[in-house]
Amino acid sequence: MAEATQAEADMLKWAEAIARKNGWMLNPDKEHLDLVIRGLVRNKEKFHRPYCPCRLRSGDEERDRDIECPCIYHKDEIAKDGNCHCQLYYKKT
Prior knowledge:
There is one protein chain. The protein is built from four helices and two strands. It has a two-stranded antiparallel sheet. The model has no long low-confidence stretch (mean pLDDT 94). It is mostly helical. It has one domain (24-91): Alpha-Beta Complex (Ferredoxin Thioredoxin Reductase), CATH 3.90.460.10.
């Protein structure tokens, strides 16, 4: 990440660890990857949780836990589509 903040660098490392643990890879499109990472950082700073930037929060903290990255939908989406909805995590090809 060019000129990434420390929070963005930390979030990227966190996402890389999740991808590695699950046998996935991160989006190879650096521009899109940076966009999603910035969205996760923004949500974590604003709401204290890394909510998926591609999903809408309800405002109900309990319900919104379902959309904390990686959200409850990501495994099914990756299995079906090859990537999660945010296009952060991809199935390795």
